[in-house]
């Protein structure tokens, strides 16, 4: 498919309405009946048919005729639906180059206000136009490979046995958004800006992945990272997928931890095991690359401190509510 920004510019309002209608319909049907598309998009049958044919030709929409005429979208069109919403809300003004492609996400650089969208908590009622700031737009892809595998591995999908694969990404994005909101600014994570469908907009922090960096003095950086892991633990959250691939090292010597869709509450029965794995992944990287050997239990003790079980505010389960929405 063509570049995402180019594809967006080539769409008109009717195209966007049709894509949004199919996306809404796919919450209940794998293939959305033509009658439902027409009703949701509020278009005439002729207008909808013409628009759908054009979107099929652009390979943004797939069509079936058996056992009924139905339509579905994939991630390329889903990205456009989210991008349209972010543009309408004045969150994103310009979409730039691709920053990275992972197994479960693609990330683009962008320019935008850096402020919450009008329907996000914290948005001022009457904003003057703020200066544009560098942003990163992360489109989640949790359902792209095997939805059944993703469902087994993700807490937020366990109670959604019929959740369409396209909405696995939406739920993953919402989980990461809530986690960033819970951690920032106490923990060095990207500042969350906005959420739309399966896209999370955050500040573009820059820096390079830890595995790409050659550190002259690795030990202070390991201490910095463990300090951030400890801060998250005190907030009652475990990253659960931490490695040298999702720690960014900036030119200022600071570290930022990214990619939080798998985060779990410290109340989770697997929390201690996942925390130990996170710490082990870091120690293994520094031992392999820099021959810096730190005993696992010693490093783990610096993370958990005296409370061993992460921060808990009475029996309120505040972190669990945040992560589960």
The CATH fourth-level homologous superfamily of the largest domain? Phosphorylase Kinase, domain 1
What does the average pLDDT come to? 87
Measure the end-to-end span: 34 Å
State the major sheet: 5 strands, antiparallel
Number of strands: 13
Q: Order of strands in the sheet with the most strands?
A: 4-5-6-8-7
> Which residues form runs of ≥5 with pLDDT under 50?
146-163, 312-316
CATH architecture of the largest domain: 2-Layer Sandwich
Order of helices and strands: HHEHHEEHEEEHHEEEHEEEEHHH
Top CATH class of the largest domain: Alpha Beta
C-alpha-based Rg, rounded? 22 Å
Tell me the helix content. 40-55%
Subunit organisation of the chains? single chain
Number of helices: 11
Features:
5-stranded antiparallel beta sheet, 3-stranded antiparallel beta sheet, 41% helix, 325 residues, Phosphorylase Kinase, domain 1, 3 domains, Arc Repressor Mutant, subunit A, Transferase(Phosphotransferase), domain 1, alpha+beta, elongated
Task: Describe the structure in your own words.
- This protein has helices at 4-9, 13-25, 34-41, 45-57, 75-88, 147-153, 165-183, 218-234, 271-290, 296-304, 318-324, and strands at 32-33, 61-64, 70-73, 92-101, 105-112, 133-140, 192-196, 199-203, 208-209, 237-238, 247-249, 255-257, 264-265.
- Residues 146-163 and 312-316 have low confidence and may be disordered.
- The strands form four sheets. Strands 4-5-6-8-7 form a five-stranded antiparallel beta sheet, sandwiched between helices. Strands 1-3-2 form a three-stranded antiparallel beta sheet.
- Helix 2 crosses helix 3 (34-41), helix 2 crosses helix 5 (75-88) and helix 8 packs across helix 10 (296-304).
- By secondary structure, the chain is α+β, with helices and mostly antiparallel strands.
- A hairpin with a 3-residue loop joins strand 4 and strand 5 (105-112).
- The chain folds into three domains: 4-73, Arc Repressor Mutant, subunit A (Orthogonal Bundle), CATH 1.10.10; 77-203, Phosphorylase Kinase, domain 1, CATH 3.30.200.20; 208-324, Transferase(Phosphotransferase) domain 1 (Transferase(Phosphotransferase), domain 1, Orthogonal Bundle).
- It starts with a helix and ends with a helix.
- It has eleven helices and 13 strands.
């Amino acid at each position: 498919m063509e570049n995402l920004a180019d594809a967006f510019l080539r769409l008109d309002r009717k195209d966007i309405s049709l894509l949004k209608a199919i996306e809404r319909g796919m919450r209940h049907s794998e293939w959305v009946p033509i009658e439902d598309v027409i009703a949701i998009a509020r278009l005439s049958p002729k207008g909808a048919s013409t628009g759908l044919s054009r979107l099929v030709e652009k390979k943004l929409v797939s069509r079936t005729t058996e056992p009924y005429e139905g339509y579905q979208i994939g991630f390329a069109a889903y990205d456009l639906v989210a991008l349209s919403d972010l543009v309408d809300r004045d969150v994103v003004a310009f979409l730039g180059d691709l920053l990275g492609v992972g197994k479960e996400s693609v990330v683009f650089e962008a320019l935008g206000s850096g402020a919450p969208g009008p329907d996000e908590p914290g948005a001022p009622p009457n904003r003057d136009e703020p200066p544009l700031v560098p942003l990163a737009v992360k489109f989640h892809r949790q359902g792209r490979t095997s939805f059944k595998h993703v469902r087994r591995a993700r807490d937020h999908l366990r109670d959604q046995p019929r959740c369409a694969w396209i909405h696995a990404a939406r739920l993953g994005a919402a989980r990461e958004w809530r986690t960033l909101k819970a951690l920032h600014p106490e923990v060095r994570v990207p500042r969350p800006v906005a959420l739309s469908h399966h896209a999370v907009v955050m500040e573009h922090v820059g820096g390079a992945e830890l595995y790409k960096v050659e550190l002259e003095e690795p030990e202070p950086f390991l201490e910095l990272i463990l300090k951030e892991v400890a801060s998250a633990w005190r907030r009652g959250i475990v990253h659960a997928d931490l490695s040298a691939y999702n720690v960014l090292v900036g030119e200022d010597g600071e570290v930022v931890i990214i990619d939080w869709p798998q985060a779990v509450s410290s109340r989770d029965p697997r929390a201690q095991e996942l925390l130990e794995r996170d710490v082990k992944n870091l120690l293994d990287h520094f031992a392999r690359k820099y021959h810096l050997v730190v005993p696992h239990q010693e490093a783990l003790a610096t993370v958990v401190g005296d409370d061993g079980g992460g921060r808990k505010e009475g029996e309120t389960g505040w972190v669990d509510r945040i992560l589960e929405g």
